[in-house]
Amino acid sequence: MDTESTYSGYSYYSGRSRGSHRHGEHSRDRHKSRSKESSRSEKSVTINASPAEPLLGEQSVRGEEVQDDNWGETTTAVTGTSEHSLSQEDIVRISKDLDDSVGLDCKRYLNVALSVILGLVVLLTPLAFLILPHLLWPDRLRACGTACEGLFISVAFKLLILLLAVWALFFRPPRAGLPRIFVFRALLATLVLLFVLSYWLFYGIRILDSQDEDYQGIVQYAVSLVDALLFIHYLAIVLLELRQLQPFFSLCVTRSTDGATQHYNLGQLSIQRAAVVILENYYKDFPVHNPAMLTASKSRTAKHLAGLKVYNVDGPGGNNAAAGIAQSQSRAMIAAAARRRDSSHNELYYEEAEHQRRVRKRRARLVVAVEEAFTHICRMQEEEQKKASGDVMDPREAAQAIFPSMARALQKYLRTTRQQHLHSMESIQQHLAFCITNNMTPKAFLESYLTTGPTLQYGKDRWLARQWTLISEASVTSGLKDGTIFLLKCIDFSLVVTTKKIPYIQLAEEFIDPKSHKFVLRLQSETSV
Amino acid sequence: MSFMPGQPVSTVVQRIEIHKLRDGDNLILGFSIGGGIDQDPSQNLFSEDKTDKGIYVTRVSKGGPAEVAGLRMGDRIMQVNGWDMTMVTHDQARKKLTKKNEDVVRLLVTRKTLEDAVRQSMMQH
Fold first, then answer.
1. Which residue, A86, A510, B64, B109, is the most exposed by fewest CB within 10 angstroms?
2. Contact A526 B44 (CB under 8 A)
3. If residue A304 lies in a helix (H) or strand (E), which one and from where to where?
4. Predicted model pTM
5. Which domain does A120 fall in, by range?
6. What is this model's ipTM?
7. What are the UniProt keywords, alphabetically (chain A) (predicted)?
């Protein structure tokens, strides 16, 4: 995992009614970064904000071509908890969203307010330590000598470095909304708070009450506070960023509908953080979920048990025998199905062979059509552009000009491979214009249609699953362990994740002297005497 | 005959006396040898143990003095005229067999069937 794209600060919220309110983070100006979030919304896992949206949003998620034209405008507000432990069905969950979306905002504002307050307190405390003596007992204060003024510079620069470091670590737009609090962050915030409070306590009792005249000592005290804050920031980096870099577990992620599997190596993370990493990689690694591909197996399974009916010859028995009858009925069906001469494997084989043939034929026609279409266009050179003869087109018009000649072949191919719902005509033309602009060959243009790419490749309205549920037996803030299994469920399918520990590798050394490579000939002579 | 490194080789041997045939300027015995401590024992076709580096008879020419004297293909030569043949190089073995001033070579050879025959005859008693 690269270090730049790791966690941003302030997006981990507690579960709706369960978590505590402690989310102190070093953040500021959430309002300023809110506008940045809308542009980054493709990376964060969010749900639409307005209360009326979720019902409509659920339908569009189900994959129909719903008018999602105002998609860009409605997702500016980040509501956050889009990953949460499942406890009820989908509908009930959505309706809970309706109730809680209002309460959620209040909680978020509370978090933001707390973290801003903590940040301000932390950053202004050293300055307060330095200024208060001048305000309260300026006459009794010993003059600040050279060494003391040197310490002012050091305080200033350290505060600047602290400010920059806090900005770098914590001022990042949120990637995802987690169900429970981020334990490390909460611990760090508590630590900082206690630390600052204890410093204030000491300051209040020993310096303010006694009105100490030694200003140099006070300045040194402020410097020690800033030093300690920098060390806490170092601790924050180690706990939040560095600890999870070294790979420790290997996670195997399988999609439940079609078995697509990937493996990821992660460090020591909590389950919810691991879930976020997996989901980010899901969009780039897994081929797009295509429900049309699953219908064939479903019809086959339906056929297996069809045609078997169970008749109860002995007549209805007593009530206590009813359960026994049901059980014996199902056993009888299984036995009969096993004995029956099933030729469905034959059907499957020939059907698949036929399908392959058809796909290959259509593909050949498509490739030829596209190559021919591309020959109609040629790029105009700079000099020729000046002598602007008529009929000069920009990429979009050029795409529209050659599109009709390949449209039919492409349409037929997409229909055969059951991809037609993934590409709209508009998107195809856009892609064509893009390829023409960048001097791509027909093969490059076709690549996105011939192979099913990852979900990222398709338009944002195709990202059917953007609301995920984390289902786990262990607590989601607990760390990953060998054998942890959890599910990431979205409406259409779920991802099953199993964890395995990377084994401890014992590496031994063997030294080979370069002069030790010697060879002899193998002889077997035969002499006649 | 099993070979244990460092232990004396004990086996049943047969005495064979070959009279060399004069063919022009050469004295020929009529067989070919293979093996030796400088050779690769794993390519020896006749040895039981593929680490055996002894001198083996690989070919006996038909009607030659060796065949007449009773030498068979696959025999291992243990001694030639008193000279030991169990730990010699291929060339040393050849030299001991083709000494120009000797007309007769007396070999001690061993083969698997000798030991079986001895054991059988011992069992009969």
1. A510
2. no
3. helix A295-305
4. 0.62
5. 106-244
6. 0.80
7. Cell membrane, Membrane, Transmembrane, Transmembrane helix
> Domain boundary at A458, A491, A512, which?
A458
Q: What is the pLDDT of residue A210?
A: 83
Low-confidence ranges of chain A (pLDDT < 70): 1-105, 107, 305-325, 337, 340-341, 385-390, 460-465
- Among chain B residues, the shortest Cα distance to A528 is held by B32
Same domain, A356 and A232: no
Q: From A458, A474, A493, give the residue that closes a domain.
A: A458
**Domain enclosing residue B84, as ranges:** 13-123
What is the count of structural domains for chain A? 3
Q: Which two tokens stand for residue B18?
A: 């070959």
Question: Which residues of chain A make contact with B90, given a CB cutoff of 8 A?
Answer: 523, 525, 527
pLDDT at position A319? 52
Contact B32 A527 (CB under 8 A): yes
Please report residues of B whose CB lies closer than 8 A to that of A529: 28-29, 31-33, 94, 97-98
* Residues A282, A405 within the same domain: no
B27 to chain A nearest CA, in Å?
8
pLDDT tens-digit profile of B102-112?
A: 889 999 999 88
Cα first-last separation, chain A: 76
> Smallest CA–CA separation between A522 and chain B, in Å?
6
DSSP codes of every residue in A188-236: HHHHHHHHHHHHHHHIIIIIITTT---HHHHHHHHHHHHHHHHHHHHHH
pLDDT tens-place string over residues A467-512: 889 999 999 888 999 999 999 998 888 999 999 999 999 999 999 9
**Structural domains counted in chain B:** 1
In this structure, are A391 and A342 located in the same domain? yes
pLDDT at res. A94: 56
pLDDT digits (tens, 9 = 90+) for B49-78: 888 889 999 999 999 999 999 999 999 999
Nearest CA in chain A to B28: A529
- Residue A65: inside a domain: no
Residues A201-211 pLDDT 10s: 999 998 888 88
Contact (CB, 8 A) for A271 and A476? yes
Please report the residues numbered 89 through 108 in chain B whose beta carbons come closer than 8 angstroms to any beta carbon of chain A.
90, 94, 97-98
Q: Is residue A378 exposed (0-12), middle (13-18) or buried (19+ Cβ within 10 Å)?
A: exposed
- Which of A523, A528, A529 lies nearest to residue B40, judging by beta carbons? A523
Q: Is residue B2 part of a domain?
A: no
Which residues of chain B have a CB within 8 Å of the CB of A522?
40, 43
- Residue A527 has its nearest CB partner, among B38, B61, B94, at B94
Structure confidence at residue A18 (pLDDT): 40
Cβ separation of A526 and B39 shorter than 8 Å? no
Q: Which residue out of B16, B39, B45, B77 would a mutagenesis test of the A interface target, given it has the greatest number of A Cβ atoms within 10 Å?
A: B39
CA–CA min distance A529, chain B (Å): 6
DSSP state of A238: I
Q: Is B119 domain-assigned?
A: yes
Going by the DSSP 8-state scheme, the letter that residue A178 receives in this structure is B
**A216 with A120, same domain?**
yes
Amino acid letter, A423 = H
Partner-chain residue, chosen from A522, A523, A526, that has the shortest CB–CB distance to B32: A526
Tell me whether residue B48 is in a domain: yes
Residues A177, A276, single domain; the answer is no
Q: Is residue A299 part of a domain?
A: no
Angle at A228 between CA A222 and CA A231, to 5 degrees: 150
Instruction: Report yes or no on A214 lying in a domain.
Output: yes
pLDDT at A325: 67
User: Which two three-digit tokens encode residue B98?
Assistant: 């083709």
Cβ neighbours of residue A458 under 8 Å, at least 6 residues apart?
Answer: A288, A422, A423
Q: Look at residue A207 and tell me if it is in a domain.
A: yes
Element (H, E) at B90: helix B90-97
Over range B93-120, report the average pLDDT: 90
